[in-house]
Design goal:
Length: about 140
């Protein structure tokens, strides 16, 4: 195994139908989401959601580069999937129980993920709960 391969952490994060893959390598503290710098991500609320694990990590981020690729889902689902992937990769990279505890104290979902998924469709209607309408006239 090469020297460069040993210094890489690959993690995933899922939220609803969005899946994010984070690759963490030695670098200068740069963060890219789908090949865009984090500072250019809009809407702002999604960018702030992605930045949460980075702010908690603080100085540990200065020596690594993060590349996150996200697909599927909507804007906020993708932001939360990226957030989970980033938090997991930073926790795996540092192997710090202090950082893990900080993430868990702030929001358990950062490391554990969100287990909620869509309810399966049933017969007699277009979705899991809604039924076909009847008029009787």
């Amino acid at each position: 195994m090469s020297e460069k391969a040993k210094k890489t952490v690959l993690e995933t994060g899922k939220r609803k139908t969005a899946i994010a893959k984070a690759v963490l390598r030695i670098g200068k503290g740069r963060v890219y989401v789908n090949d865009y710098p984090l500072e250019t991500i809009v809407p702002e609320i999604a960018r702030l959601k992605i930045e949460e694990p980075l702010l908690i990590a603080g100085e540990r981020l200065k020596t690594v580069d993060l590349r996150v690729s996200v697909e599927g889902g909507g804007v906020m689902g993708q932001a939360e999937a990226a957030r989970i992937a980033i938090a997991r990769s930073l926790a795996g990279w540092t192997r710090s129980s202090e950082l893990r505890k900080a993430y868990l104290a702030f929001d358990r979902v950062m490391l554990a993920g969100d287990h909620r998924t869509t309810e399966p469709k049933k017969f007699g209607g277009p979705g899991p709960r809604r039924r076909k309408q009847k008029s009787y006239r």
